[in-house]
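Any chance you could type out some protein's one-letter sequence along with its backbone structure tokens so I can compare the two?
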Amino acid sequence: MDGGRLARVLALATPAALLGGAYVAQLGFGLPPCEMCWWQRYPHFAALVLALAAFKWPRAETLVALAALAIGISGVIGGFHAGVEYGWWEGVTACTTTSTAGADDPLAAILDAPLVRCDVAPWSLFGISLAGWNFLISCGAALLIFRLLARDRKAPR
């Protein structure tokens, strides 16, 4: 598989896998996302759209590069979020969640809404939180995609 095609596949697979994992954690294991968790998802949504569009055009290096950039942005947000979780620095938000229950009594809905804090990691593996894993995987994948694109560009045609 040439570098451009591999970069395209990686640009699609990375956000699909990470978003899939986030939704499994949220819906399957009851780990609701905090505000910064959502911030990490938005660039992955954009990367998915860009990567899918890149499959429509055979020579879509720009779309793949933009997808890689979006993946990298999600990783940087994940790194910042992980730092907040580990107490390395302070977050920029109160990190609360909205409730969809209790439409008849808005005050009760607000008071009963679960507080999802950004500065507490609800789960970790090997001491690395979900935000930390997003940082590692997303930044690594973005760098690899850029390297594959660069290698493909240098290859003789």
Q: What stands out?
A: The radius of gyration is 18 Å. The helical segments are 3-29, 35-56, 61-85, 106-112, 130-154.
